[in-house]
UniProtKB/TrEMBL annotation:
Keywords per UniProt: Autocatalytic cleavage, Hydrolase, Protease
One Gene Ontology term of the molecular function aspect: beta-aspartyl-peptidase activity
Matching InterPro entries: Ntn_hydrolases_N, Peptidase_T2
Cited CDD domains: Asparaginase_2 (cd04701)
EC identifiers of the protein: 3.4.19.5
Active-site residues annotated for this sequence: T206
Subunit organization: Heterotetramer of two alpha and two beta chains arranged as a dimer of alpha/beta heterodimers.
Organism field: Stephania yunnanensis
Site features described as Cleavage, chain residue numbers: E205, T206
Stated name of the protein: beta-aspartyl-peptidase
Reactions the enzyme catalyzes: Cleavage of a beta-linked Asp residue from the N-terminus of a polypeptide
């Protein structure tokens, strides 16, 4: 075994005009999460799946990224969160969608895996299960920030689904962007499509964590609030095992980006598949999947292997990410060059 390793992400696709202050804030959060994971692996000898849950809970509790508190809002102005977790050794998994009062959706996903006969619960059923298990619940307003209320207002004015639900403050409005195919883009970036429909600037901020512990056990988890101004009931890739999250005896993967493209490409599972069937190493597998399975979509992923390798890849302009390994390597970055 190559020792433990951990990687975290806060979303693929970043506003190129993101302020230096916001960049540093994101790096500090990712660093703090890595340090929590490192401490759990190095000094507490927790299992990979335990570390994944702890780290993702920390990401969900901070409103900076799009998960838990700070989640994107539906067209109705509510929060519908989703998450999944997977324990690699026996490919055990749990997932939830449409939860609106559970403070930490990743922990509810863990309970679905550990305490229910099922792998996936959604909406009312997931909420009922949460109360049966005694998990912490809060009012939906807890998750809603003033910033996101303003972004929802702009999205409705533009009649658009926003991937980048934190539009640069320099942009006065979204009135130049509409859902018609001939719309004028918000910026000089060419109009992008999701399932053939125009969308605005692309920069989702889903969170995720992958871990391999000192015994070579891999685990991963992903959590998100989804898309700003999304239809109520929309489910993305984050809770779907094999798409947004996957873990097995050889690797673990968490994805972020255009959910519909990730779903079509079964992105997370494909990394494990090409390692198993093509004999690729972890970074080679990540690169191959990003380059060959997105069909024009934009996304990114983090991954670890049972041998202690860590890797990431993305075809968007950037990805909030960080990683650390037992041999002392640690890196936190946003742009492709760092």
């Amino acid at each position: 075994m190559g020792g433990w390793a951990i990687a975290v992400h806060g979303g693929a696709g970043v506003d190129p005009n993101l302020s230096p202050e916001r960049q540093e804030e994101a790096k500090r959060l990712l660093t703090r999460c890595l340090e929590i994971g490192i401490n759990a692996l190095r000094f507490k000898s927790l299992s990979a799946v335990d570390v994944v849950e702890i780290v993702v809970r920390e990401l969900e509790s901070d409103p900076l990224f799009n998960s838990g508190r700070g989640s994107a809002l539906t067209a109705k102005g509510t929060v519908e969160m989703e998450a999944s977790i997977m324990d690699g050794p026996k490919r055990r998994c749990g997932a939830v969608s449409g939860v609106s009062t559970v403070k930490n959706p990743i922990s509810l996903a863990r309970l679905v895996m550990d305490k229910s006969p099922h792998s996936y619960l959604a909406f009312g059923g997931a909420e009922e299960f949460a109360r049966q298990q005694g998990v912490e619940v809060v009012e939906n307003e807890y998750f809603i920030t003033e910033e996101n209320l303003e972004m929802l207002k702009l999205a409705k004015q533009a009649n658009a689904i926003l991937f980048d639900y934190r539009i640069p403050t320099a942009v006065p409005s979204l009135e130049t962007c509409s859902a018609s195919a001939g719309a004028t883009p918000l910026t000089d970036t060419p109009l992008q499509l999701m399932n053939g429909l125009p969308i605005s600037v692309y920069a989702p901020e889903t969170v995720g964590c992958v871990v391999v512990d000192s015994e070579g056990r891999c685990a991963g988890g992903t959590s998100t609030g989804g898309l700003m101004n999304k239809m109520s009931g929309r489910i993305g890739d984050s809770p779907l095992i094999g798409a947004g999250t996957y873990a097995c005896n050889i690797c673990s993967v968490s994805c972020t980006g255009e959910g519909e493209a990730i779903i079509r490409g079964t992105l997370a599972r494909d990394v494990a598949a090409v390692m198993e069937y093509k004999g690729l190493k972890l970074q080679e597998a990540v690169d191959w999947v990003v380059n060959n399975r997105l069909d024009g979509g934009q996304a990114g992923m983090i991954a670890v292997s049972s041998e202690g390798e860590v890797a990431y890849g993305f075809n968007s302009n950037a990805m909030f990410r960080g990683c650390a390994t037992e041999d002392g390597f640690m890196e936190v970055g946003i742009w492709e060059s760092n």
